User: What shape does this take?
Amino acid sequence: MTKHTARAGVCRRTMAWLLAAVVTAVVVLIAFGQKATASIFQANQVPTPQIPLAPQQWQTAAGGKMAFDVASVRQNKSNDKAKSNVSLTVGRTYLPNGGVFSATNQSLFVYILFAYKVKLNEAWDQWKNLPQWARTDRFDIQAKTEEHNPTKDQMRLMMQSLLEDRLKLIAHWETREVPIFALTLAKPGKIGPQLESHPMDSPCSTAYKPTNGQSVVSAPVETLLGVWPDECGNGADMWVRSPVRMRAGARDLSMEEIAGWLSAEGDTDLPIEDRTGLNGNFDLVIEFAPEHGPSTTLDPSVPTFKDALKEQLGLKLEKERGLARFFIVDHVERPSEN
Assistant: This one.
């Protein structure tokens, strides 16, 4: 199982790091009478000013606001596996697609994370802050642009326009002081054996390559450092069943990106913020006993997530209050079939 595709729903492990927020429904007046509906969501039951999100640096660099030339959004009620020809992650993994975006059986939550380049620790509040349909219903989005070689960030910008046009999505970023886990060095000036600086001359593509799962599972974990996953700019994980443990790796990520990625991998109950002071990009591989997984019987010889961080990566989590940035959805409406 890799992170290059969005799963059909937020798995139990991912759901653990999402804190509860308030879900409310707005009463909508319908021409044939008045009735309550959950198809429209607004965080506070007062009109929300439609102020556009201030452009992020990456959005400006990608060219600013742009849109698909044609697009369709349809609900998917099948039990088919979620898939997409574009990696719906915050990472850089990306394949040429001729300007075609094709994703099936994905939740609105996944599309939002992709469109606005939201890291998991920045979406902490949003799982239960969305209406029920946005968390459980699945949608297919087929879209095309006449620009045949768009970058991944340009695809994100086009998805933003689609969500804002078809689903009337209104959102904002906010920074607030909250309890967090600060990711720091376990020993000053020293990193662990399974965390290393990414070599500048390393042959490392951002194009996704299918992984031979059996070879990753059977290989000694230390031999995977710097070679798994095959692509750079993203993370991957796999279950190992004897004994039950999670094996996760990433290549060419900044410590800020690693902190956001670890928030989900470790199933932490608070967002993780980088406080290591480490610059540059890194490769890592980590193996630990997950709190939630295919078995509740865990081998005591497999370290917990926090122990693995310290022993394998030379990092530790310290609970404190600190500033964290969050992506907040203020308003969204169920899309009409088209």
